[in-house]
Design brief:
The chain is an alpha+beta fold. It is built from five helices and four strands, in the order βββααβααα. The strands form two sheets. Strands 1-4 form a two-stranded antiparallel ribbon.
Length: 157
């Protein structure tokens, strides 16, 4: 069985409205997407479809963020459920097979001298580190804050 790890719009009406789509976690086949062998392989390579079932995660969290959160919890010494640990292991193996970095978050414990600081020891330190490792970044804004004002036409004051 192959599962979707992305949303695929398979039918759109004349007004551009999606009439039929395949959602993450749905079973999917090459014929469902009407793609060539090369395109199907590219979807596998990119992780858009997989033989591994889509993880049971909240709908507002991407798989990448979900696995980063699991890695942060593991790094902080929290015990993961067996299913979580197995899913994280598979995800990291998939990343390694693609030559990508693992999902382990940067801890911020590195120092200029090249020696790492001690791992967080108190619950307070662990919570702060977990929050830092899993806080989403703000997107959509241009660097420098607000968008620049449009240029005035030549000859105007």
């Amino acid at each position: 069985m192959t599962y979707a790890w992305s949303t695929f719009r398979t039918e759109v009406n004349e007004w551009g409205q999606v009439v039929k789509q395949i959602n993450p976690g749905d079973e999917v086949s090459q014929s469902d997407l009407d793609v060539s062998d090369e395109e199907w392989q590219a979807l596998h390579d990119a992780g858009a479809v997989s033989e591994d079932p889509y993880p049971d995660i909240p709908t507002d969290v991407s798989p990448g963020e979900y696995f980063r959160q699991l890695a942060a919890r593991k790094l902080l010494g929290e015990d993961l459920e067996d299913e979580e640990a197995e899913a994280l292991e598979k995800y990291e193996a998939w990343q390694a097979s693609k030559g990508e970095p693992t999902s382990a978050p940067v801890t911020g414990n590195e120092t200029e001298g090249g020696e790492g600081a001690a791992a967080p020891k108190t619950d307070e330190q662990r919570e702060a580190a977990a929050k830092t490792a899993t806080t989403p970044t703000q997107t959509g804004a241009k660097a420098g804050g607000a968008n620049p004002a449009p240029a005035k036409p030549a000859g105007s004051s």
